[in-house]
Design goal:
Length: about 130
Amino acid sequence: MEATPIPDKAYFRIGEVARILGVKPYVLRYWESEFKAIKPQKSRSQQRLYRRRDVELLLRIKRLLYEERFTIAGARRKLREEGATDIEPAEPEAAEATPQRASEPRMSKELLNRLRIDLEKILKLVEE
């Protein structure tokens, strides 16, 4: 997918932003979790509404990750050096205070998979 110019409008839905950036929507949702400055508003129907500022930041993040080959942590550091604020990873909101949503079990499964992979790497290092 290839990036396209940003249209002149105030808000963009996730599909529009994905087309503008040339990435899949799940990539945008992941970047939201890694960069707390990207915090789209939600419409009444709970669709993400990105502001132009969000789209411009997402374009910068994409350039850092895909073209300049930074890691997520490296991109955060670079953006902070450039004066961007609220770049740290988004913190999960108080999950204990909210009822469990349908998407949370999937997120837990992803977390467990990442933990398993990390533990396997540690075990491999210890065995060497």
